[in-house]
């Protein structure tokens, strides 16, 4: 059994001298945690004899106030040296300096008395260790000199980033009359402004001096967010852009007014929400008598209606497109409130939401509130829950067993693959999702997938069919080690005339960092796809690609280097020469990113906000010629939107030439970030030509017309010469592009169903999806005759029924007709594919090279090989260029993106989270720092560099108003402590709706899905402990079985690997998607007076936690760590217990969140795990260690009684 052993060392702790809090440490106390990584360890003697490969040892040293002053991960570095995280307090118990961890010369886990000096020396020891050097490897913080100890100034690691240099600062005050903050009524009118002193104001200034103002009323509701812009639109200059929040009497947000709406009212002098504003520019929300959200409307789209059953479960949802067809999306539930079926319901009688809700209210749910497993039916479920007729099921989910048709016997069984270490399946799987069925849209064909688990809850096999093979002959089998690492993976994918088999073997270092991947295709000799090397902090520094001799030689070596904040600064280098950043001279691609560094030759401006100010790159192309070094230097406005990207190039040994050959410039935006103008150059026939001179016009946020003064057929192309306007459907999707000559239709799920080339006869593309909205087929027609069919079966792509290629960890494998050949892809810092190569005569031969304008248009001049790679920009989105580069879109999961115009063709499905900007914008209008691979949320660099393969994790990047701070953490508890301190200091907790001040929480929640190695600790009722972990891409808790009688007690103890990625730049208002009001330490006001509604069930628990903190006069990090009052301790315990419950319910699946009236979300689950990590760790430091063990025993007993 996997066990967690915690040992306490009792010793003389401190001698106090001088002021309270000053301390001399003679011998700190120690809590030692040993995480067992191998099976069959049952005795103390066995534990003692385990090696570093077999266990992880973490020692937490505390002072006399039980504060953690140092954490040592014994032998945690790749060379098995100790990783030390020092902590220091001032005389007031605050941490004015946060230190980066360092690697000690020792390996025995001992306390490092001179840790601060050793840490300083570590970051000044030269570049040979491939760790960034800096004389300020810490973050300095300045607090308010008052009992509130509010944060005033915070720097970031590194020289030039400290207070007094370039740092973020906060001031606190009340409003003035001159600020003119409008008072809004629920009816959308604003007759007056707030008088002076009626609002609290938090004024945040970033490293560049840009200001954000947050205004809150006496109820704690944020009524206005004001951000410095200094922009001129249509001849009107505005210093600030405003976003207002209007509340109803119950405290719910009724309207959100984006900056463009506010500017229009300001310009007209009429502060009244007109019908036009409500239709085109305002977010509106309507609630029923029970406070449930019954209608929501995004600007430019028709309302979305939500119908509930008497149990407050969302039953029906209808958007504008479904309404035109009298259709609704429905969900059905089982007795455990898990969704078991989803589909389309048609009702031509009840055509209004009121009529439908009334009709649902009359249904008898007393005996038919759920579906039951039932034999003799088509899908193994009864059909008794409304709606029972007029339905077209799209999805079915099955839980608890493998008897899908409920006839008493399992319908599917595990298919053994004779793999070494292959686990036996466990058929007692109550609570697990065991199978699902998905209809192929528009057909009566269903796809089925069945998942088998081992005794530890690891998913060990997926058995499925596909659209080319109806039989259940596809398998994906994995072998795990004791900690959850995947050691082997065997995939068999079948089609009508054969199958393809892939066998992958993975190896790890003692800390769980991935070392190598070996692949064998169809039984051929294995190739080493990649090996990975790390510096002593665990950052990826070298990725070696393709070896056929067990790793003796490779075709390519990709080197990575980082600055002191963890930002990626180079991939090889931009000259493709050997230096301290790059080890080889035969590289096919290299790139360097500049932030606060000035390159005199480029003339870039420096930035201390995390913005990339210039990139330099060089790519080898298939011709084998001598490539030029190329560069862009970037300029941004005060909202960190891209204004221009100026191109330069140079030959080897030469100087930079600013010829503007591929400039993308004169980019201007309206208040919501809709692009107004854009110019683009290209190098054509020996001269620089302006290929695009675009002028955009809008109706609200919808692009209405677009004119081009450019003189080339490249770039944006008005192929028809039409002056007609664009057209849209009721959901805000583009349906007609008269310039390209395109028309589009959409299916019931809102996915593009058909794109027609209107300038030709019978020329169109038809897209087919399964019931979950996943693309599975594309068919190209010309003259109404089918020309080509492309099938997408997970990572396998077939053309006209024949395998074309499939994805592998570092690129793809092509079917050349005679063999399967690996093609490797090297990506830039955003995950955009720059160069692909394959082996030819023992060398790396470049197949394809692509360079991009910032908004994603492929630079002209390159040639495409046979079987070209079309998964290019935006983290590998597929370029749709089937008919002479038409339709010229990038396809994401949710919507299409047009790189020529820099906009999506449909509305953002998460538009509410980005209410301050256009629902059609791409990457926050900052494509240098963000992209949007799924088409739903802008992703910072540390998410997109991974390219979906999930190899890295561990560094957390906090960003605020354009700033950034990257810190390496050893465990989730450390992350949470730092996050709370950060959020507290910037008053970032009390906002209705997501916004940039949730960034720290967002980054933490996001990183929970990226940690390379993590764990969950459980306690049996008999008092014994054990620990499960999972090192896959998913959350460390996913796949871990919580057995009956077992309680989750602690989260995240295994040291993590620093992420091999670049830090994010600014996250704008709305970019955070954590979405909670009360998660975090108690506020300075009673949360009951805020008028805020909890965002989810864990946020509701946090509300009561915060109220208890307020009445106990506890707040902030100090209250969370050091307040010993019974009220605070009880509040912590209640919140912790609820987090445990949420985690359990989410893992069971199908449970409804009573606050959102939707299934418990991944975000809620992440919130719960964050709380578990926080209060499962910091609670130890609220009580002297001599009583800690008794206290936690009592705690556990109370918890067990609550489940």
TrEMBL record:
<feature type="domain" description="DUF6443">
    <location>
        <begin position="43"/>
        <end position="174"/>
    </location>
</feature>
<protein>
    <recommendedName>
        <fullName>DUF6443 domain-containing protein</fullName>
    </recommendedName>
</protein>
<dbReference type="InterPro" id="IPR050708">
    <property type="entry name" value="T6SS_VgrG/RHS"/>
</dbReference>
<keyword id="KW-0732">Signal</keyword>
<dbReference type="Pfam" id="PF20041">
    <property type="entry name" value="DUF6443"/>
</dbReference>
<feature type="signal peptide">
    <location>
        <begin position="1"/>
        <end position="22"/>
    </location>
</feature>
<dbReference type="InterPro" id="IPR045619">
    <property type="entry name" value="DUF6443"/>
</dbReference>
């Amino acid at each position: 059994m996997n066990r967690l052993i915690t040992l306490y060392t009792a010793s003389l702790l401190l001698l106090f001298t001088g002021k309270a809090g000053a301390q001399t440490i003679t011998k700190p106390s120690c809590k030692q945690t040993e995480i067992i990584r191998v099976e069959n360890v049952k005795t103390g003697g066995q534990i003692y004899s385990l090696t570093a490969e077999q266990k992880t040892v973490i020692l937490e040293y505390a002072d006399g106030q039980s504060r953690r002053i140092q954490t040592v991960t014994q032998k945690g570095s790749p060379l098995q040296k100790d990783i030390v995280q020092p902590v220091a307090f001032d005389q007031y118990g605050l941490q004015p300096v946060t230190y980066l961890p360092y690697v000690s010369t020792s390996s025995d886990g001992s306390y490092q008395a001179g840790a601060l000096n050793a840490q300083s020396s570590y970051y000044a020891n030269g570049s040979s260790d491939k760790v960034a050097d800096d004389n300020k490897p810490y973050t300095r913080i300045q607090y308010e000199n008052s009992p509130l100890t509010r944060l005033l100034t915070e720097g970031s690691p590194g020289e030039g980033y400290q207070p007094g240099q370039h740092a973020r600062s906060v001031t606190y005050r009340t409003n003035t009359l001159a600020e003119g903050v409008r008072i809004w009524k629920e009816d959308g009118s604003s007759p007056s402004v707030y008088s002076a002193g009626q609002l609290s104001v938090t004024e945040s200034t970033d490293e560049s001096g840009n200001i954000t103002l947050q205004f809150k009323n006496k109820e704690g509701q944020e009524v206005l967010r004001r951000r410095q812009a200094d922009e001129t639109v249509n001849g009107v200059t505005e210093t600030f852009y405003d976003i207002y929040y209007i509340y109803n009497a119950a405290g719910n947000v009724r309207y959100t007014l984006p900056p463009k709406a506010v500017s229009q009212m300001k310009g007209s002098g009429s502060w009244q929400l007109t019908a036009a504003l409500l239709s085109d520019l305002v977010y509106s929300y309507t609630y029923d008598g029970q406070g449930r959200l019954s209608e929501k409307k995004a600007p430019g789209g028709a309302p979305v209606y939500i119908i509930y059953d008497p149990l407050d479960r969302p039953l029906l949802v209808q958007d504008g497109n479904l309404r035109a067809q009298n259709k609704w999306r429905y969900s059905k539930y089982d007795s455990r409130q898990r969704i078991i079926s989803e589909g389309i319901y048609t009702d031509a009688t009840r055509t209004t939401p009121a009529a439908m809700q009334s009709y649902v209210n009359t249904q008898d749910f007393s005996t038919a509130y759920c579906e039951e497993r039932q034999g003799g039916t088509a899908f193994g479920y009864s059909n008794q829950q409304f709606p029972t007729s007029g339905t077209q099921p799209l999805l079915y989910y099955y839980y608890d067993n493998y008897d899908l048709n409920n006839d008493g016997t399992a319908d599917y069984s595990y298919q053994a693959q004779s793999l070494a270490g292959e686990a036996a399946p466990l058929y007692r799987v109550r609570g697990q999702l065991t199978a699902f069925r998905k209809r192929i849209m528009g057909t009566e064909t269903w796809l089925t997938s069945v998942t088998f688990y081992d005794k530890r809850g690891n998913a060990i096999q997926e058995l499925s069919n596909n659209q080319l093979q109806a039989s259940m002959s596809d398998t994906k089998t994995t072998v795990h080690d004791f900690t959850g690492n995947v050691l082997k993976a065997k995939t068999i994918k079948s089609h009508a005339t054969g199958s393809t088999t892939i066998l992958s073997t993975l190896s790890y270092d003692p800390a769980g960092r991935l070392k190598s991947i070996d692949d064998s295709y169809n039984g051929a000799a294995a190739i080493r796809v990649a090996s990975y090397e790390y510096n002593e902090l665990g950052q990826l520094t070298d990725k070696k690609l393709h070896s056929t001799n067990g790793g003796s030689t490779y075709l390519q070596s990709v080197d990575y280097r980082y600055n002191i904040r963890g930002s990626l600064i180079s991939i090889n280098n931009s000259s493709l020469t050997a230096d301290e950043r790059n080890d080889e001279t035969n590289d096919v691609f290299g790139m360097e990113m500049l932030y606060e560094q000035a390159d005199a030759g480029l003339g870039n401006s420096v930035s201390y906000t995390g913005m990339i100010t210039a990139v330099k790159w060089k790519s080898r192309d298939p011709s084998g010629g001598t490539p030029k070094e190329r560069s862009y230097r970037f300029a941004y406005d005060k909202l960190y939107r891209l204004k221009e990207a100026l191109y330069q190039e140079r030959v080897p040994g030469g100087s930079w030439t600013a010829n503007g050959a591929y400039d993308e410039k004169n980019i201007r935006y309206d208040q919501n970030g809709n692009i107004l103008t854009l110019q683009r150059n290209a190098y054509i026939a020996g001269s620089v030509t302006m290929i695009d001179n675009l002028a955009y016009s809008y109706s609200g946020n919808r692009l209405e017309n677009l004119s081009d003064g450019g003189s080339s057929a490249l770039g944006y192309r008005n192929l028809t010469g039409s002056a007609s306007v664009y057209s849209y459907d009721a959901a805000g999707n583009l349906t007609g592009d008269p310039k390209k000559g395109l028309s589009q239709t959409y299916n019931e799920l809102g996915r593009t169903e058909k794109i027609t080339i209107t300038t030709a006869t019978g020329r169109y593309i038809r897209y087919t999806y399964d019931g979950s909205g996943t693309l599975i087929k594309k068919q190209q027609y010309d003259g109404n005759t089918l020309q080509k069919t492309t099938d997408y079966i997970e990572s396998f792509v077939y053309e006209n029924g024949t395998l074309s290629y499939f994805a592998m960890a570092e690129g793809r494998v092509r079917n050349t007709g005679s063999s399967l050949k690996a093609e490797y892809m090297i990506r830039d810092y955003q995950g955009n594919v720059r160069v692909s190569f394959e082996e030819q005569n023992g060398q790396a031969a470049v197949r394809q090279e692509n360079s991009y304008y910032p908004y994603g248009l492929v630079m002209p001049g390159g040639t495409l090989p046979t079987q070209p790679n079309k998964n290019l920009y935006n983290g590998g989105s597929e370029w749709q260029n089937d008919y002479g580069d038409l339709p010229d879109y990038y396809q994401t999961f949710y919507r299409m993106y047009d790189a020529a115009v820099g906009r999506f063709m449909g509305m953002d499905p998460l538009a509410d989270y980005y209410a301050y900007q256009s629902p059609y914008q791409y990457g926050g209008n900052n494509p240098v720092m963000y992209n949007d691979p799924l088409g739903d949320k802008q992703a910072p660099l540390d998410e997109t560099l991974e390219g979906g393969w999930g190899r890295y994790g561990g560094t957390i990047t906090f960003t605020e108003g354009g700033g950034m701070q990257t810190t390496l953490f050893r465990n989730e508890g450390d992350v949470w402590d730092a996050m709370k301190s950060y959020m507290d200091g910037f008053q970032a907790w009390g906002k209705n709706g997501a916004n940039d001040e949730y960034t720290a929480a967002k980054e933490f929640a996001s990183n929970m899905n990226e940690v390379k190695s993590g764990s969950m600790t459980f306690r049996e009722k008999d008092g014994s402990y054990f620990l499960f972990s999972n090192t896959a891409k998913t959350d460390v808790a996913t796949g871990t079985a919580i057995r009956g009688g077992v309680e989750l007690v602690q989260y995240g103890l295994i040291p993590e690997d620093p992420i091999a990625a670049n830090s994010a730049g600014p996250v704008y208002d709305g970019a955070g998607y954590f979405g909670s009001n009360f998660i975090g330490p108690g506020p300075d006001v009673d949360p009951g007076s805020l008028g805020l509604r909890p965002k989810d069930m864990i946020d509701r628990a946090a509300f009561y936690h915060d109220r208890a903190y307020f009445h106990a006069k506890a707040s902030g990090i100090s209250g969370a760590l050091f307040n010993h009052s019974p009220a605070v301790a009880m509040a912590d315990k209640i919140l912790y217990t609820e987090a445990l419950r949420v985690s359990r319910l989410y893992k069971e699946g199908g449970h409804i969140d009573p606050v959102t009236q939707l299934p418990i979300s991944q975000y809620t689950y992440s919130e719960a795990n964050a709380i578990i990590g926080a209060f499962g760790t910091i609670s130890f430091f609220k009580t002297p260690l001599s009583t800690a063990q008794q206290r936690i025993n009592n705690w556990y007993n109370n918890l067990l009684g609550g489940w």
